[in-house]
Amino acid sequence: MNKTQFIASLAPHFNGSKKEAGHAVEIVFDSIVRNIQKGEDVTINDFGKFKKVDRKARKGRNPFTGETIQIKASKKVRFLPAKALKEVVSGARKLGPAPKPVVVAKPVAKKAAKKVVKKAAKKAPKKAAKKSAKKGKKK
């Protein structure tokens, strides 16, 4: 599953809006990345833990030439799955039912729509009156 498919699978939980689901995913990912970048561990219960790991400089070998090379120190991200996630993946634990989508009614802006209609209705008779006045003068 890629990111687009992931967002599409979450859309029903956001009143079918892929835009809102995508925004929520971006917020979650951004929060995880920013906290890992600061050096903080990000633990999500029953899912796992993301942590920043410092790797020391070490010697390695070029697989094509067999030459020994020096590998620089670096920082990596490590994910440690939680026990509950491991159990579900291995089949030792059954995955519960998926949460049902929560339907939230969006507020409807009725007042704004009525004002626009009233303004348009008021302007129309003035234009009609001007047209009829012009027609009367031409005859």
Give your account of this protein's structure:
- The model has no long low-confidence stretch (mean pLDDT 83).
- The relative contact order is 0.08.
- The chain contains 4 helices and 5 strands, in the order H-H-E-E-E-E-E-H-H.
- It is elongated, with a radius of gyration of 31 Å.
- The protein has helices at 3-10, 18-37, 83-90, 110-138; strands at residues 42-44, 48-55, 58-61, 68-71, 74-81.
- It has a domain at 110-139.
- The strands form 2 sheets. The chain has a 3-stranded antiparallel sheet with strand order 1-2-5. Strands 3-4 form a two-stranded antiparallel ribbon.
- The protein is α+β, with helices and mostly antiparallel strands and 139 residues long.
- A hairpin with a 3-residue loop joins strand 1 and strand 2.
- The termini are far apart.
- Helix 1 packs across helix 2.
Beta-strand portion reads 15-25%
Helix/strand order: HHEEEEEHH
Strand order of the largest sheet: 1-2-5
Q: How many strands, what sense, and barrel or not for the largest sheet? A: 3 strands, antiparallel
Give a count of the beta strands, DSSP E runs of length 2 or more: 5
Number of helical regions? 4
End-to-end C-alpha gap: 74 Å
**SS-based class:** alpha+beta
